[in-house]
Amino acid sequence: MHHADDPTPPPARKAARDAGRDPDALTICVAAPAYVGDDPAHARDQCRWFGGTVGNHVADLVAKYGEHSDMVPEELTAYIKGRRLKALGVDQFSVYAMHDDREGTIDVYGTHVIPSFH
Predict the structure, then answer these.
(1) Helices (H), strands (E): how many in the chain?
(2) How confident is the model at residue 59 (pLDDT cuts 50, 70, 90)?
(3) Pairwise CA distance, residues 71 & 12, whole Å
(4) Are 2 and 73 in contact (CB under 8 A)?
(5) Is residue 27 within 8 Å of residue 95, measured between CB atoms?
(6) Alpha helices of 19-92 — where are they, by DSSP H?
(7) Which of 6, 18, 38, 115 holds its CA 20 to 30 A away from the CA of 46?
């Protein structure tokens, strides 16, 4: 049974148990593109590819596991919507720097963004 105070997605917990692993030992990693700059429209254009990539990945999962299955729960969007990463139990956040200013974005993350979390 899934409890509201347990941030680990229920399918991940079940898969761990089914594999004979401890669900409490799971770590969750989230990844997304990031761009730092003064032009929001340009930044969006540089990261726009990510939505298509994620959409294709989700489509592959749906094709593999079925449109209405326990492996691709319809509650997923509602479960994630409105929650902060920490509240979801995210242990690691990875940044995709696949655009025209990789070095600049990584520099800003290293000097300003990451230190703000300590």
Answers:
(1) 5, 2
(2) low
(3) 10
(4) no
(5) no
(6) 40-47, 49-65, 76-80
(7) 115
